[in-house]
């Protein structure tokens, strides 16, 4: 028996919006500790990994671990039927369940919507992601990161990210010309969510596809801050933390031959 | 010229 009731149902709606562009089908792996999902995009260039901890639900019940195979587009369509302030409850009987029940209660508890989503068998490759000490970790406003990706898309399909002592620089070069945006590390005691924090072990310079980064920024509504972790010749980690867990995106770099 | 790498060349299957 699996049951998870999320008071802030709107969070689940935002989460689905932030993964559906990248991944079509995925397993929600449910266990005592919470709900996890890991899936790569079709081209094996990007990966999304999300975790919703059991403590974030009220109540949360999961007798034993199992996977719910979901078409994310279909789930997203059903979640659009929930109000932003609704309480969302997910239910499935056991591992052989062929559907996921969803109920949407409004805040006054006088309107309850009930839906069933057919589940599917998904044979998914699971990657083991090593613990990494990154060369550079940047915490910055998520809206700023979104704007930079959007702006540089005008110029090129790729962006080079250079991190040095107190600066992160995003550079794009294309047929029409070039552009770059430099952000200096700042510390705003009054508004820490607006500051740019750079932790640097050694300088890093890496190139990434902007198309994927634009997809990752669908996570912007989930958190005011985004965390970028970079190491030379390693995939980039883009993380949005939530009270209840996180969503992490990994992107393989472009490397010169 | 740089080419897009696959994640599979960094992360192993578990």
Percent of residues in helices of chain B comes to under 10%
Given as residue ranges, the uncertain stretches of chain A (5+ residues, pLDDT < 50) are none
Most extensive interface: A-B, 24 and 14 residues
The fraction of residues assigned to DSSP E strands of chain A is over 45%
Strands of chain B, total number? 2
Kindly report the oligomeric state of this protein. heterodimer
Q: How much of the sequence of chain B is in beta strands?
A: 35-45%
**Helices and strands of chain B, in N-to-C order?**
EE
Largest sheet of chain B: none
* Secondary structure category of chain B: mainly beta
Q: Total number of helical segments of chain A?
A: 4
Give the N-to-C terminal Cα separation of chain B. Answer: 32 Å
Mean pLDDT of chain B: 90
Task: Report strand order across the widest sheet of chain A.
Answer: 6-2-3-4-19-18-17-11-15
Radius of gyration of chain B: 9 Å
Taken from the alpha-carbon principal axes, the silhouette of chain A is globular
- The secondary-structure element order of chain A is EHEEEEEHEEEEEHEEEEEHEEEE
Explained architecture:
The complex is a heterodimer of chains A (257) and B (14). By secondary structure, chain A is mainly β. Chain A has four helices and 20 strands. Chain A has helices spanning 9-19, 72-79, 142-153, 210-216, and strands spanning 2-6, 25-31, 34-40, 46-53, 60-62, 66-71, 87-92, 99-105, 112-118, 127-128, 136-141, 158-164, 167-173, 178-184, 197-200, 204-209, 225-230, 236-242, 245-251, 254-256. In chain A, a hairpin with a 4-residue loop joins β13 (167-173) and β14. In chain A, α1 runs antiparallel to α2 (72-79) and α3 runs antiparallel to α4. The longest helix of chain A has 12 residues, at 142-153. Chain A is globular, with a radius of gyration of 20 Å. Chain A starts with a strand and ends with a strand. The interface between A and B is medium-sized, with 24 and 14 residues.
Offer a concise description of the structure.
Chain A is 15% helix and 46% strand. By secondary structure, chain A is mostly beta strands.
């Amino acid at each position: 028996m699996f049951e998870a009731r999320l008071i802030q149902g709107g969070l689940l709606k935002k989460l689905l919006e932030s993964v559906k562009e990248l991944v079509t089908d995925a397993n929600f792996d449910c266990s005592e500790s919470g709900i996890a999902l890991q899936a790569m995009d079709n081209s094996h260039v990007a990966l999304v990994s999300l975790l919703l901890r059991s403590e974030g639900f009220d109540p949360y019940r999961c007798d034993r671990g199992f996977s719910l195979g979901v078409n994310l587009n279909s789930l997203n369509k059903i979640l659009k039927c929930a109000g932003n302030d609704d309480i969302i409850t997910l239910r499935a009987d056991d591992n052989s369940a062929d559907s996921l029940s969803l109920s949407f209660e409004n805040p006054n508890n006088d309107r309850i919507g009930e839906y069933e989503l057919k589940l599917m068998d998904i044979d998914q490759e699971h990657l083991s992601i090593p613990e990494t000490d990154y060369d550079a970790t940047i915490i910055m406003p998520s809206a700023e990161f979104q704007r930079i990706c959007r702006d540089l898309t005008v110029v090129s399909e790729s962006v080079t990210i250079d991190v040095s002592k107190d600066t992160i620089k995003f550079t794009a070069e294309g047929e029409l010309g070039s552009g770059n945006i430099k952000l200096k590390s700042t510390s705003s005691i009054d508004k820490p969510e607006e500051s740019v924090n750079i932790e640097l072990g050694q300088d890093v310079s890496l190139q990434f596809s902007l198309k994927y980064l634009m997809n990752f920024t669908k996570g912007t509504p989930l958190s005011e801050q985004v965390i970028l972790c970079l190491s030379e010749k390693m995939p980039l980690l883009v993380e949005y933390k939530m009270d209840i867990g996180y969503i992490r995106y990994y992107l393989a770099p472009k490397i010169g031959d | 010229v740089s080419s897009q790498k696959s994640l599979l060349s960094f992360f192993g299957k578990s």
